[in-house]
Known about the structure:
Elements: E1 4-12, E2 16-25, E3 28-38, H1 63-72, H2 80-89, E4 94-99, E5 111-118, H3 127-138, E6 154-168, E7 178-188, E8 191-200, E9 205-219
Helix pairs in contact: 1-2
Amino acid sequence: MAVLYQVERTRTGNSFSVRSVKALQGGQPIFICQASFQRCQPSPLRHQFSMPAVPPPEDLPDHREVIADFLGDPDPREEYRPGLHRIAARDVPIEMKTVGPGGGGPRPRPEQMFWVRARGHIGEGDAKLHCCVAAYISDYALLGTALLPQRRRLAVTFLASLDHAMWFHAPFRADRWMLYECRSPWAGGSRGLVLGRLWRRDGVLAASCAQEGVIRVRPCLPPSNL
């Protein structure tokens, strides 16, 4: 079914402009976005956090290889297998390589990091296209970060984003490796909040994002001895 986009000029200034976008399908809103644009302006005010020190993507396996190894292990819990098979069968347009155990250990923390990039070649092209691709990438696996501390005790029954905000700081190529750093400072009341940072390989902070989502869970049932 076709999607109709309605764009409203919310504000037009000398330095900043804001547009409100509503996507309609079958006459019903399915997406609402507020986009802010800025003219390039040099400024002596500059600082950023330091990029985490992690192994390069060339030294890490692709997430599909990790899933294949996990499925080849005869010991993992059987309830994980259907979900992993579904993930492995997806034609995902993103390459992902997990850095470290991804929230593993006896007391996993609500944080994880990935090397990410778009599959295929996008080229220099329009910077806005790379921003669009990065926005797609930023939504992938972000909310799951809030589940890491209790993923062995709770099974997810429903997971969906409620809102998603993104800020672009520096030029980048979405078809080149970037480090995606995800941290969840809070979860409760069937909701979770996750903050993300996308780093270029040269240590420049390219973009930041924040997402709140609904997370409904139930306790994992112990394996039956029958």
